[in-house]
UniProtKB/TrEMBL annotation:
Coiled coil: none annotated. InterPro entries: Acyl_CoA_acyltransferase, GNAT_dom, Trichothecene_AcTrans. One of its GO terms (molecular function) is acyltransferase activity, transferring groups other than amino-acyl groups. Residues 83-217 form the N-acetyltransferase domain. PANTHER family: GNAT FAMILY ACETYLTRANSFERASE, N-ACETYLTRANSFERASE DOMAIN-CONTAINING PROTEIN. This is N-acetyltransferase domain-containing protein. The lineage of its organism: Eukaryota, Fungi, Dikarya, Ascomycota, Pezizomycotina.
Length: 229
């Protein structure tokens, strides 16, 4: 039975996270360098269990992060078909992976040195544009879409747009802008939701030691505060 065309947005429950992480892994596949580095082996049972554990820890420790799910129905049962995580940032984001995750967890989640150093290098570059956005807000902060994924089998039902617009509405309520690090696949959706590309290709200066690695191809997109000129 096909899913209902109706999609609604609700807060994610802790019990949703294992299945939601698996859905996220399917959504990104293997061609997402940042996700692949941040959630190692996310397409394996062990990687998915660890990923769900990390999302749960994030959800429970970050009151400024809003974990949202897009829900449809099939056969009379609700199914989660999308996830969106928005964070309201007034302070600058952690500038190093150790600051973001903690020394102990960095070694736990990236036990191999090469993978650990690669993720550290990516993180340093990844947070630079959003840091400038937070600083540029002059204390007001910005809303950051940290993660968006829709199940591949349930696209074109409006789940992605609903998850994006929920965060943009929250930003409008706060009177602040919003930022997104967008893949090529997501850019058209974000543009339809009113965001504009500020940095066409984010720079990842990871150093000569990683010259053979595939870096993320991301566009930094922004939406000004509601009513801003």
């Amino acid at each position: 039975m096909p899913p209902s065309d109706k999609v609604h947005i609700a807060p994610i429950e802790d019990a949703d996270l294992p299945g939601t992480f698996k859905m996220m892994s399917l959504s990104f596949g293997s061609d997402a360098p940042f996700i692949n580095a941040y959630f190692l082996a996310h397409d394996t049972p062990a990687g998915q269990a660890q990923g769900a554990e990390r999302l749960l820890a994030w959800k429970q420790s970050s009151p400024d992060s809003q974990f949202l799910k897009a829900v449809s129905t099939r056969g009379g049962e609700e199914i989660v078909i999308g996830i969106g995580i928005w964070t309201y940032m007034v302070e600058q984001p952690p500038q190093t992976l150790e600051d973001a995750e903690g020394e102990e967890d960095v070694r736990k989640y990236w036990p191999r040195e090469e993978e650990r150093e690669w993720m550290k290098a990516l993180w340093r570059e990844y947070v630079k544009p959003r840091t400038r956005a937070v600083v540029g807000s002059k204390g007001k902060g910005v809303c950051v879409l940290e993660l968006l994924a829709v199940h591949p089998e349930y696209r074109r039902l409006g789940a992605g747009a609903a998850l994006v617009n929920a965060g943009l509405s929250a930003a409008d309520d706060k009177g602040v802008g919003a930022v997104i690090e967008s893949t090529d696949a997501g850019r058209q959706l974000y543009e339809k939701c009113g965001l504009k590309c500020e940095i066409e290709k984010m720079n990842f200066d990871v150093g000569e030691g990683f010259s053979g690695k595939k870096t993320p191809k991301l566009c930094f997109m922004v939406k000004g505060a509601s009513g801003a000129s």
